[in-house]
Write a structure and sequence with these properties.
Length: about 230
């Protein structure tokens, strides 16, 4: 009996050491840009679903130090959206079930001549809106956030960052909806311009280590039951 107790303590210490060791291997990982045609350099809006007044146009200038030949401009009222599946060959649903965050950087040119910092356009500051959603595999929205802005930028644009955190399970699809309205409507493509849109996800790959730890615990319990 004494040997069994000693062996049990030894096994428990080994389990604790192993669990701690594999736990150290868990990583918080941030992906690269998940969006298709986020910079519109295809010269079109391929990869996006559009609604209302939007158009991809030739770009007049370098935006935030990034060379650009095209961007997308909103008219009186329009929007673009894109869904991104988050699971891949290396990112499993079990990993996503640990909780995720998605972060989007959107480059915007927004300047009107009735506000400070005028460089073009007419009327009051135009509105641009970022709506981020996390959905399950059936399309049910699990988390959502919306930012509505009227910030005026210089002709070279400015970057705006939005982040959505979801700590629950079953996240499978990230969705972004970018919309704009022209304060001087009706007009022709007088709204904000967007370019270089980047959407990334941060997740934790700890799930494999957790499964291994639980398996070791099960084996240890079975050992005591059969010893």
């Amino acid at each position: 009996m004494k040997k069994l107790i000693i062996l049990g303590i030894f096994l428990w210490l080994m389990l604790s050491w192993f669990a701690s060791s594999v736990g150290l291997k868990a990583e918080e990982i941030t992906t690269g840009n998940l969006l298709t045609n986020g910079n519109f350099e295809t010269g079109n809006d391929n990869g996006w679903t559009t609604s209302g007044d939007t158009a991809v146009i030739s770009d007049c200038c370098e935006l935030n130090g990034v060379d650009s030949d095209y961007d997308l401009e909103f008219g009186d009222s329009g929007s673009i959206s894109q869904d991104v599946t988050l699971t891949t060959n290396s990112i499993t649903q079990e990993m996503l079930n640990n909780g995720i965050s998605v972060s989007q950087v959107t480059e915007v040119q927004n300047g009107e001549c009735s506000v400070s910092g005028c460089w073009g356009g007419q009327g009051a500051a135009d509105t641009f809106t970022i709506n981020l959603n996390i959905k399950d595999s059936s399309g049910v929205v699990l988390a959502t956030m919306t930012s509505v802005r009227t910030d005026v930028t210089g002709i070279n644009g400015a970057n705006f960052t939005d982040t959505l955190i979801y700590a629950g399970a079953n996240s499978n699809v990230a969705n972004t909806i970018i919309s704009g309205t022209d304060a001087n409507a009706p007009a022709s493509l007088g709204g904000a311009n967007i370019d270089n849109v980047s959407l990334t996800m941060t997740y934790n790959n700890v799930v494999l280590q957790v499964e291994t730890k639980e398996a070791l615990k099960t084996n240890l319990i079975n050992y005591f039951l059969t010893a």
